[in-house]
Amino acid sequence: VLLVENPAIPALAINATLLTGARHEPEEKAGLAIMASNLLDEGTKTRSSFDIAEAIEATGGHLETDASFERTVAAATVLKQDADLGLDLVADLLINPTFPEDYVAKEKSRTLAEIPNAKDRPQVVAGWAFNELVYGSHPLHRPSQGYPDTIERITRDDLLGFHDHFFAPNNALLSIVGDF
Q1: H or E stretch at 33
Q2: I need a surface site. Which of 24, 74, 91, 121 has the fewest CB within 10 A?
Q3: Mind listing the pLDDT tens digit for each residue in 10-32?
Q4: What sign does the dihedral 162-168-171-177 (CA atoms) show?
């Protein structure tokens, strides 16, 4: 836990980073970490995606999830008086995600549509080719969003398994900056 007090602005930036990302997913399920991060706010055991959005929007705050090769992040920015809600929402997303089947299907479709669009950008194609050439069989050789065939293979159970294996307190770093 990292705390940096800054009373200059009556707000808090809450950032929970899990030390896991695309490099920890199986080759045949490339894209799993990014998909898991994109689905964290689509429902938990205690809140629907609508409840999550409504709670953060009612405070004027901001909630975000993301992943890369090395990490997965859930972050919130809230006013000082909404600190408890911000902490509760971030914790709920990381501890209790449900990865609803209908959202998994939508996320797979969205990702499958984005991959061909990325191929229209020369710098992306060059980056992918470079990574394949330089990293060989290392997990860094593949695009973090995966390949069409690996995205097709990802199931809700894969997401739950990835979550159960890597989302743990001993694999997390919580940082809070602001007026607390």
Answers
A1: helix 32-39
A2: 121
A3: 999 999 999 999 999 999 999 99
A4: positive
